[in-house]
Specification:
Length: 399
């Protein structure tokens, strides 16, 4: 596969918080275009307690979840960067310096050579990248994905100063949505910014036989299936989808709402589902590996994203790449994905009544699957990576 703007003979260092999904995919697509990629993944050994204790909140922070070595290219070396810390604001503010020290130690220990640093998330990976840029005098690119752009710098003056330092030290900033760009523009930042959305893997997310996927997942063949995929966190709004299901079954009973994901609100969702008597209508499927998600996408009739806030929401694109329409909240990111009612419908966040109404409309509508697939095509990682490579070349990399 030929990509524009190749940067052969370049060694890339990537500092990130996970090597899975939207952080792994562009790395793997970029890898054949460079000489080597060294990926430093921040992990918290505290999360490994989940192996011995039943703590759903820790599942998505474990090394097994955060590092997916499936199909890793030969020239990509993935190194866990273990840092013990507690999930407190105080510990998190100190994490940047510790993250930098750990990555620097690994680089020196292994004699790692790199011509460019690319960090995913401004904190703490971005801070580590900024410090390494100053020490090694190589170009530094940071991608601001979500909370690290729209939340952290606006918490207090100390956070603002930390994030502004990272953004101003970078040679180029990438962010995934116009709503994130608007947040950056509220800060005192002079570094060039380019909006490049996240993408999807076209070798995973494509139309498959729905009945076969349902059979493989042991899902009913005779029901309309509503699907949402995301971490079980308050900001993802699953509780409002549960409330919406209570309203939907007043109109039609032949539905099953499947919630895929792991996280801190699982127990609360289980209680909510029981209290509303919705056990026959909602399935908490748990967290699933990324390469299994396309089966769930293809098995459903409708994808729903009830988030209160999203920077972009690539799961919507992944669903569309399987030919599925989307109902999503106006959460800051989905408005940039569901840009036409040809592809889906938008609802108000935290409004179960509006959500239920639009889901019912969507279930009854005849959607143009080919139009949805054609729209999704622009978000393949192959297309997105071309824009990332252009930024690398603009910094003199590969010339």
């Amino acid at each position: 596969m030929s990509l524009e703007g190749e940067v052969d003979n370049v060694n890339l260092a990537v500092i990130c918080h996970s090597y899975n999904n939207f952080q792994k995919d562009p790395i793997d697509i970029l890898a054949p275009r460079v000489s080597s990629v060294n990926v430093f993944v921040r992990v918290n050994p505290f999360s490994e307690l989940g192996k011995y204790l039943s703590i759903p909140q820790l599942e998505r922070f474990s090394s097994a979840y955060k590092i997916d070595l499936t199909g890793t290219p030969e020239n990509v070396q993935v190194s866990p960067t273990p840092i013990w810390y507690l999930p407190t604001d105080r510990d998190y503010k100190r994490l940047g310096e510790r993250h930098y020290a750990h990555v620097k130690s690994l680089i020196k220990e292994r004699g790692t050579k790199f011509d460019l640093i690319h960090a995913h998330f401004t904190w703490s990976a971005g801070y580590a990248g900024a410090r390494l840029k100053e020490e090694y005098d190589v170009p530094f690119v940071v991608t601001g994905h979500g909370y690290d752009i729209y939340s952290l710098p606006f918490k207090d003056d100390e956070w603002r100063a930390k994030i502004e330092y990272v953004l101003n030290t970078a040679d180029h900033i990438i962010t995934v949505s116009q709503s994130n760009l608007a947040c950056i523009q509220k800060l005192d930042v002079s570094t060039p910014v380019t909006v490049i959305p996240n993408g999807f893997r076209s070798d995973l997310f494509y139309p498959r036989d729905s009945l076969e996927c349902r059979k493989a997942l042991n899902l009913p063949q005779d029901k309309k299936i509503i699907l949402t995929v995301g971490n079980l966190e308050p900001v993802k709004g699953q509780r409002y989808l549960v409330e919406a299901v209570q309203r939907i079954i007043r109109e039609r009973k032949n539905i099953l709402c499947v919630i895929v994901g792991a996280g801190k609100v699982r127990t609360a969702l289980e209680r909510q589902i029981r209290s509303l008597g919705l056990e026959d209508y909602i399935l908490l499927a748990g967290g699933k590996p990324h390469d299994e998600i396309p089966l769930w996408m293809n098995a459903c009739d409708l994808f729903v994203l009830p988030s209160l806030r999203e920077s972009f929401g690539v799961v919507q694109i992944e669903a569309m790449a399987c030919g599925k329409p989307v109902v999503a909240t106006r959460n800051g990111g989905s408005e940039e994905v569901v840009i036409s009612d040809k592809y889906g419908l938008l609802v108000e966040p935290a409004d179960p009544e509006d959500l239920a109404e639009k889901i019912l409309v969507a279930l009854d509508r005849e959607w143009d699957r080919e139009a949805i697939l054609a729209y999704a095509e622009r978000f393949t990682w192959e297309n997105i990576v071309k824009d990332i490579l252009k930024i690398y070349r603009s910094l003199g990399i590969g010339d």
